[in-house]
Specification:
The chain is mainly alpha-helical and 59 residues long. The protein is 83% helix and 0% strand. It has one domain. The protein is flat, with a radius of gyration of 14 Å.
Length: 59
């Protein structure tokens, strides 16, 4: 299992723990899953968050 999958699972598990249910619980689960996926992709070296943040601060 690579870091992206682990990050996705971690985000989804946090969403389950934080969600109260209904539509907003689903939206929260999706958002936390995406955050976990992006952090996992960053750890795998697929996404460079440092370059993204540097380019926004200079603009």
């Amino acid at each position: 299992m690579n870091n992206a999958v682990i990050g996705l699972f971690a985000g989804l598990l946090l969403a389950i723990a934080a969600a109260t249910g209904g539509f907003w619980g689903f939206i929260l689960a999706v958002l936390l899953g995406v955050v976990g996926l992006v952090l996992g992709l960053h750890r795998d070296g697929v996404v460079d968050l440092g370059a993204l943040l540097r380019s926004r601060s200079r603009g």
